[in-house]
Each structure stands twice: as C-alpha cells, then as structure tokens.
Specification:
Layout lengths: L1 H8 L2 H35 L10 E5 L5 E4 L1 H38 L10 H15 L4
Antiparallel strand pairs: 1-2
Helix pairs in contact: 2-3
C-alpha cells in the first residue's frame, strides 16, 4: 500500500497539479496587491477620496450596540480582483492558442522532410536483390 501511494504521489499529474496550485496562490496574492494597492486608490481618488474597503451600508445595530453593515466595498474589491484575474488568464490562454495556431501553420507550410537514406544493411540487401534479378535463371 505504501508503494502504491508513493507511485501515485510522484506521478506527473499530481506534481503538475501541486505546482499549479502553488503558482495560482502566488498569482492570487499578486493580483490582490495590484487591485488593493495600485488600481483601487486612483479610482477612490477619482470618486472624491472614497476608500472602497471602508464602503459599507449600515443595516442596524447588534445586540451589544455594534453597527451591523454590509461590506459592499470589500465585495467591489473582490469583484474587481476577479475580473482582473479572469482577464489575465484569458490573455494567457489566448496568446497560447495563437502560438499553437502559428506553429501548426508553419508545420503545414513547411515541405515534408526527405525520406531517410537507407541504412548500410538495407543498401547491401538492395544491391544483392538487384544482382539476383539480373542473373539469368538456370
């Protein structure tokens, strides 16, 4: 059973998936920083200094007197983050597909490679065959 688990764990697909998850998590933090630190401040400034993270709609007070509110600003930040990630993934997939199509067109346009030269053994056998054909039958 341990051998089966080891074989499963070191398969290429499992390792590829692990790398993808790690890269995805790192990409998520980069996008979060891009949205929170680069994109949202100018948008907030353009809207009169509104910080979307603090934007909320109060709906009432809780049992201990705290204000209960809907965090619409956090939702907008997450929505914008999602749109940026989706657009980035779209661009990566689109460029990958374009490169793949270009490679396919180049392969189709290129002339087929010449057939490989016969090996020394094949050449010798062909020569023997031709000599036997030219020899008269007894």
């Amino acid at each position: 059973m341990l051998k089966e688990f080891r074989d499963f764990a070191v398969k290429g697909n499992v390792l590829d998936m692990a790398v993808g998850i790690i890269i995805g998590a790192a990409f998520g933090t980069v996008i979060s920083s891009l949205v929170n630190d680069v994109v949202m401040p100018p948008i907030g400034l353009a809207l009169g200094g509104v910080d979307f993270a603090d934007l909320a709609i109060p709906v009432g007070t809780g049992p201990e007197g705290e204000v209960v509110s809907i965090g619409i600003g956090l939702f907008l930040n997450n929505l914008l983050s999602f749109l940026i990630v989706a657009f980035a993934v779209f661009m990566v997939v689109k460029s990958f597909n374009n490169m793949k199509k270009m490679a396919e067109r180049e392969a189709a346009a290129a002339p087929p490679p010449p057939p490989p030269a016969p090996s020394a053994e094949e050449a010798l056998l062909s020569e023997i065959r031709d000599l036997l054909k030219s020899r008269p039958l007894v």
